[in-house]
Design goal:
This protein is α+β, with helices and mostly antiparallel strands. It has twelve helices and 33 strands. The protein has an eight-stranded mixed β-sheet with strand order 15-23-25-24-26-31-27-30, sandwiched between helices. Strands 5, 6, 9, 10, 11 and 14 form a six-stranded mixed β-sheet that branches. A four-stranded antiparallel β-sheet has the order 1-2-4-3. A hairpin with a 4-residue loop joins β28 (about 555) and β29. α8 packs parallel to α11 (about 610-620). The longest helix is centred in the C-terminal third of the chain and has 23 residues, at about 650-670. The two termini are about 25 Å apart. The structure holds zinc ion. Zinc ion binds near residues 63, 404, 407 and 542.
Length: about 675
């Protein structure tokens, strides 16, 4: 199984329909303290090298990656105007329209073709075909597929080569193509003369574990839920079903939805000072204020005085009474003042040689916009344990969501699944069997601080809220770039182990953190695996793009050396289980997870160094799966697949929650049937 993965950025930049600014107040006039607005765009990269530069540049890539017919790849990303301009200088060009097919090489020897997989599926939008094939001529081969199907239907489409980290992994249809009726036979031909034929099989064609009876209840989520609501729901479920649940408070409190208060004073660039409170804004930092004053006399020294919450900097003057203190001198004077309650720094890479002008009294702020009811304290992440026998004697299943803060649908998937299990227990025999045979651990939000920031401050927040950047990267306009990518902070196949797909740059979208397991969010997930040794299955719920994945999830770039592959038997088990679970997802509203997006992470998405599923599988022997909920939607007018975004209109988010909750319950069914080998 393989899929195409991203490489490169470029181009044309299609603004997606998702609003990135709802819930965020945007100042009418942006100042130097304001973050640049970010947009969710579709980029196109021409080649692997560009993609790697893109990752290294700290681009905030989504998990939706789509190959194009010319071998380039489109990927959705969250970018600011400055980042976009920088991406252009990486050699990217604006894409326009559908790329042309490469012309076949003339005179090439006839090649050998192998059809790896040819499947059809029927979604709510009709029949689609997916084909994967390989040529011994490698990526240079020009392949096309033609098919015949029921009722005299037929069609043809080009296959595109998939080259990842320099390795040719085969050709495939870039996306599933529509077919008038059920395809039955496929012929793949090469411009060099190679030819292969196969019968087209059904996908996912899984077993149907959904044995729920009449009267089964579902649909328990009515809106996107920020962390406070999620915790309330978990507690309410425990109160209502005390005999079937426990609440587990995970041991590592997060840093909390809080930041130090700051002010950027002076003129950028050259004569500016960044002041940062020692205390968090909510713990007194927001009460501080600073002013720079002209003493009104000649030959005065630079002086700093503290008066309660107010810091007054009296600038030095020259012989004519003109202020003469440079930014660097003001910084040094503030930092040498006992009791100032702040630290000062020059702006970014400025040497601070510019002379500071007087600045009126300026209040420091943590810039956080959530209402006061949203706790600023370190957050206790909750797990809801569900089952009749919660004593370690049953096969454990862990479902955890929102490692990435902006993925608002994931928590709904877990809450909907928990509600279905508990509410149907009294009335549905199949549900009773699941709760008798398994021990379920549900963590609706792994990263509540980041989630709050996504809900109230910056929709596109991916990481947690903890700033590990040095002073030069910590002025307030950069606050949307701080944080650790929780799903790059684990210890297996990590950045520090030499694996690809995470960054050491504290502003990167995939910043791995200062060390493996540096963040409480990742330590909580590991703690669950270590503490409850009966956990054998885990589902890491992400969005978006419609994937079902398993290890390995990382490789070393040089030679594309992946973490060890599962054995053939394990691989077969992963795939068989995936098809069962995907069948359950499709039963909800006809959403079929694409075959080329079902498989190991490294093959179907991209390398993600230090992700949690790898740690669970390699260190704990847990079948560690990943959902990317939010499959592309087929647009019958444009006849193209369209991405759904992180925060689609709730009607779509709700539908995704319903279908992937069905998938999660199907996974619990797989776990209930599991027997130790
Ligand atoms: Zn994610």
């Amino acid at each position: 199984m393989r899929g195409l993965r991203a490489s490169a950025v470029v181009v044309a930049i299609v603004l997606l329909t998702t609003s990135l600014t709802s819930g965020t107040s945007v100042p009418a006039v942006a100042g130097p303290s304001d973050p640049e607005p970010a947009s969710l765009v579709t980029l196109s990269v021409p080649d692997q090298a560009t993609m790697e530069r893109l990752v290294a540049s700290g681009a905030d890539l989504t998990e939706r990656v789509r190959p194009q017919a010319d071998g380039s790849i489109q990927i959705d990303a969250v970018v600011t105007p400055t980042q976009l301009a920088g991406l252009g200088s990486l050699g990217a060009t604006l894409a326009s329209g559908t790329p042309a097919q490469k012309t076949p090489k003339s005179g090439a020897a006839q090649d050998q073709l192998v059809i790896e997989r040819a499947v059809w599926f029927k979604s709510r939008d009709g029949y689609f075909l997916s084909v994967e094939a390989s040529s011994n001529a490698g990526a240079a081969a020009v392949l096309s597929a033609s098919w015949t199907g029921r009722r005299g239907s037929s069609g043809q489409a080009a296959l595109v080569p998939y080259v990842d980290a320099g390795a040719y992994l085969g050709h495939q249809l870039s996306t599933p193509v529509p077919a008038e009726n059920q395809p039955q036979w496929i012929t793949v031909t090469s411009a060099a003369g190679g030819k292969a034929e196969a019968r087209v099989k059904e996908w996912p064609d899984g077993e149907r574990p959904d044995r729920t009876g009449p009267g089964y209840q579902k649909d328990f989520v009515s809106q996107y839920m920020p962390p406070t609501q999620l915790n309330e729901r978990v507690k309410a479920l425990h109160q209502r079903f005390p005999k079937l649940t426990d609440i587990i408070t995970l041991p590592n409190p997060t840093n909390g939805y809080r930041r130090h208060a700051q002010a950027l004073i002076g003129t950028v660039p050259g004569a500016a000072v960044v002041v940062t409170s020692n205390a968090y804004g909510s713990e007194g930092g927001n009460d501080l204020a600073i002013e720079l004053v002209n003493p009104g006399a000649a030959d005065r020294p630079l002086q700093v005085t503290v008066n309660g919450k107010q810091l007054t900097v009296s600038l030095a003057t020259d012989g004519s009474g003109t202020p003469a203190s440079t930014a660097a001198q003001v910084v040094a004077a503030i930092n040498a003042t006992p009791g100032s309650a702040v630290k000062a720094a020059t702006y970014r890479t400025d040497a601070g040689l510019g002379v500071m002008a007087p600045v009126p009294l300026t209040q420091l702020s943590d810039f956080l916009k959530a209402p006061a009811g949203v706790s600023r304290a370190p957050w206790r992440v909750l797990a809801l344990r569900v089952g009749v026998h919660r004593d370690g004697s049953r096969t454990g299943v862990l479902a955890y969501a929102q490692e990435h803060a902006r993925e608002w649908v994931g928590p709904l998937v877990t809450i909907e699944a928990a509600e279905r299990l508990l509410r149907n227990y009294p009335r549905d025999a199949a549900t009773r069997e699941l709760l008798n045979r398994t021990d379920i651990f549900i963590v609706p939000t792994v990263n509540p601080d980041g989630a709050n920031y996504s809900f109230y401050d910056f929709n596109s927040q991916r990481k947690n809220m903890t700033n590990h950047c040095p002073a030069q990267q910590s002025d307030p306009a950069l606050r949307d770039t701080w944080g650790v990518d929780v799903n790059r902070n684990y210890a297996v196949g990590s950045l520090s182990d030499g694996y690809f797909g995470a960054s050491a740059n504290c502003q990167s979208g995939t910043f791995a953190g200062p060390a493996e397991h540096s963040e409480p969010e990742s330590r909580n997930v590991v703690w669950l695996a270590r503490t409850y040794r009966n956990i054998k299955f885990a589902m890491n719920v992400h969005s978006y793009g419609g994937y079902f994945m398993w290890p390995p999830g990382a490789y070393k770039l040089d030679g594309r050396v992946t973490l060890p592959r599962p054995t053939a038997r394990q691989e077969a088990y992963f795939l068989r289980s995936a098809r069962t679970i995907e069948q359950a997802i499709a039963a909800e509203r006809g959403t079929v997870t694409w075959p080329q997006q079902t498989g190991p992470v490294t093959d179907v998405l991209y390398s993600a160094a230090g992700n949690s599923a790898d740690e669970l599988w390699y260190d704990h022997g847990i079948f560690g799966w990943d959902f990317e909920v939010g499959s592309d939607l087929w647009n019958p007018t444009t006849r193209k697949w369209e991405g759904v975004g992180f925060q689609p209109p709730f009607s779509e988010g709700h539908a995704e929650a319903m279908e992937f909750a069905s998938g999660l319950i199907s996974l619990i069914g797989v776990a209930a049937d599991y027997r130790e080998p």
